[in-house]
Write a structure and sequence with these properties.
single chain; alpha+beta; six-stranded mixed beta sheet; four-stranded antiparallel beta sheet; 3 helices; disordered N terminus
């Protein structure tokens, strides 16, 4: 896992040889919400947005398209789906941050009284890179579980039931 964070920290001035996203999900017991942080290389996200029909986004530039947040939200929602405790759930876009050559996007799933299982379906950027890997990390009360998804395996279930 440390290697994946290192890879995502690589400089954008060099073509990155690995295509990976990291989706961190934390269950917040106090607010009954799943807090989602999605980290992707900015250049890969731009390619995904362009393929989805959103051209001239200019992410992080002064001339950034005013609809960029909406485009990111639409793209992620078309590629990332969740079921919590066996039920499909919706999530809302909170915002984004740019950090060097990566984009952090934040989302939230509300009204999760208890997290027993989470089913994740993710095809993020698999239409762009054949070797795209999507790491899903879920933290419930310091109990961390992971999924590695990509073009060949697009979904998986993590269980927190005793």
């Amino acid at each position: 896992m440390v290697l994946l964070f290192f890879v995502l920290s690589a400089s954008a001035s060099l073509a990155h040889p690995y295509y990976v996203s990291i989706c961190q999900i934390e269950y917040n017991r106090e607010t009954h919400a799943l807090e989602i942080s999605l980290k992707v290389f900015a250049d890969d996200l731009l390619l995904g947005l362009e393929k989805a029909g959103h051209k001239e986004v200019f992410l992080g530039e002064e001339r950034e398209n005013p609809n960029t947040d909406s485009h990111i939200n639409q793209y992620v929602h078309s590629k990332l789906k969740f079921e919590v405790n066996g039920n499909p759930v919706e999530y809302k876009f909170i915002g984004k941050e740019l950090e060097d050559d990566v984009v952090w996007s934040y989302f939230e799933i509300s009204n999760v009284e208890e997290l027993k299982t989470i089913d994740v379906h993710c095809t993020l950027l698999t239409e762009i890179h054949e070797t795209q890997s999507n790491v899903i990390q879920v933290d419930k009360d310091k109990n961390i579980k992971n999924l590695l998804l990509g073009r060949r395996k697009t979904s998986g279930v993590l269980s927190f039931e005793d």
